[in-house]
Design goal:
Number of strands: 12
Strand content: 15-25%
Radius of gyration: 21 Å
Strand order of the largest sheet: 6-7-8-3-9-10
Length: 351
């Protein structure tokens, strides 16, 4: 599995620095995103992976300005083409959203208007950001449905969302996201609840977007197997923080954080005997209203020791950044032992 090289670019398309997002709730302040930093270059696919509730979707929606509310608090920067998305006004975000940055949401049935035909919804976005009349926008919408592989696109323009299958609805969302040729696409769990055949087709659409337009892509998912054939780099999130970040090969072949080992170990292997049951990470993710002291993964980590009561920084100790107090030698030894019982993911084959 070779890692593809992103399009050379002197400046990052998107630069996120120390992003923090908190919400006031009845249970206290929930720190949904806690000091997240990453970048995306033009023509590059960055996958943000982790369990549900780790802050992946909040990160993506914050970049789109969709988490703004009276009970939300933000800090940090997210610079896109010289514009800070965190401090941008609502009017500035309206000009950027859909035209420069587009998002494919996790559940198209909840994201599409159920009482409007899909062609009307695509044409509405086209006319909002381009000087097109109704007929031109409708024809462009038909071409977009054809581009994403929907059969009989002229007929499907008149369909309501409930008249389409889950895979077709997701393709409509992708067509809408591509309608204005965005420079950055955020795809939030675009393959959730889809069968493996449709998953492969949706990921192919993401790959073609990157290759044809040079757009940067943020792919948000909980499944490392999904990103094995698509991503250039991977950021692993846990409890609102990035715990490991590296290239595709670094994360798959030389993972440094025990949480990453657990994610990789949960992928079914075709090159080993079939286990009675897949390995699972013990316990559940912590409440972000009252996270553990020190390493966020400490209560679930089988390798925790005294120093884990202090929060480890995200720093490079063995080739790429991770957030773990174990030394590189200790990690190699523990991964080798775990590998003997099928729990390590350092040699997981690409899906």
């Amino acid at each position: 599995m070779g890692s593809r090289q992103p399009t050379p670019n002197a400046d990052h398309l998107l630069e996120v620095e120390d992003l923090r997002v908190a919400f006031r709730t009845e249970d206290g302040v929930v720190q949904a995103v806690d000091g997240v930093s990453f970048h995306v270059d033009a023509g590059e696919v960055l996958a943000i992976v982790g369990e549900s509730g780790c802050g992946k979707s909040v990160t993506g929606m914050t970049l789109m300005g969709l988490t703004r509310s009276p009970n939300a608090r933000f800090a940090g920067r997210a610079t896109f083409d010289g514009q800070d998305l965190v401090s941008a006004s609502d009017e500035q975000l309206r000009r950027i959203r859909g035209a420069e940055i587009a998002m494919v949401f996790q559940d198209p049935m909840c994201s599409l208007n159920p009482v409007q035909r899909v062609g009307t919804q695509i044409a509405e976005q086209l006319r909002a950001h381009n000087e097109l009349d109704k007929d031109a926008a409708t024809e462009r919408a038909r071409g977009l449905l054809e581009r994403v592989g929907i059969p009989r696109p002229a007929e499907r323009l008149r369909a309501f969302p409930h008249e389409l299958s889950g895979g077709m609805r997701q393709r409509v969302m992708i067509a809408m996201a591509l309608s204005c040729d965005p420079r950055l696409l955020i795809a939030d769990e675009p393959t959730t609840a889809l069968d493996v055949t449709i998953q492969a087709q949706i990921l192919e659409e993401v790959r073609q977007l990157r290759e044809e337009t040079g757009a940067g892509v943020i792919l948000i998912t909980h499944d490392l197997g999904v990103v094995a054939d698509v991503a250039d780099r991977i950021a692993v999130m846990y409890a609102g923080q990035i715990v490991e970040q590296g290239t595709l090969d670094e994360i798959f072949y030389d993972p440094q954080h025990p949480y990453t080992w657990g994610l990789l170990g949960s992928i079914a292997r075709v090159d080993r005997p079939r286990p009675a049951r897949l390995p699972a990470i013990a316990g559940t993710p912590p409440s972000l209203a009252n996270p553990p002291h020190g390493c966020r993964f400490r209560p679930r980590c089988p390798h925790a020791f005294a120093q884990c009561s202090e929060l480890p920084p995200l720093e490079t100790r063995a080739g790429h950044p991770d957030r773990c107090w174990l030394t590189p030698q200790e990690k190699r030894e523990k991964r080798e032992v775990a590998g003997q019982i099928g729990l390590a993911g350092g040699e997981v084959a690409a899906a």
